[in-house]
Amino acid sequence: MALRGKDLRELETEELERRASELRRSIFNLRVRMGTKELEDTSKIGHEKRDLARLLTVLGERGRNGAVSVTPKTAPSKKTAAKAAKEKPAKRATKKPAKRSEKS
Cα separation of 5 and 35, whole Å? Predict the structure, then answer.
């Protein structure tokens, strides 16, 4: 299902969202099949992921033009991002310098 940007830009937003949902489901099913060793052609996963990326790119372009607001499902929520910003980085363990005995 090689999707092209030119063809995708001609579709309605609802149709693009429906196709994105189908592609996510398809990628999930392919990954499950790969995990159970039922999938012989693993390159299908990459093709589906690229098609999804093209689709999300077109939806994102529409969002920047004010038509639709689109965020990927993997984006962290505002609450999670704010919590991560407040957390302090872990302190690094430092070695103490070895004691030297003074010889005369």
Answer: 31
Angstrom distances, CA of residue 103 to CA of 96, 97, 100: 21, 18, 9
Domain containing 64: what range? 5-77
From CA 4, how far away is CA 19, in angstroms rounded?
Answer: 13
CB of 2 within 8 A of CB of 51? yes
Q: Which CATH number do you get for residue 55? A: 1.10.287
10: amino acid identity, one letter: E
Q: Which residues of the chain have pLDDT under 70?
A: 1-3, 66-85, 87-94, 96-97, 103-104
pLDDT tens digits along 30-53: 999 999 999 899 899 999 999 999
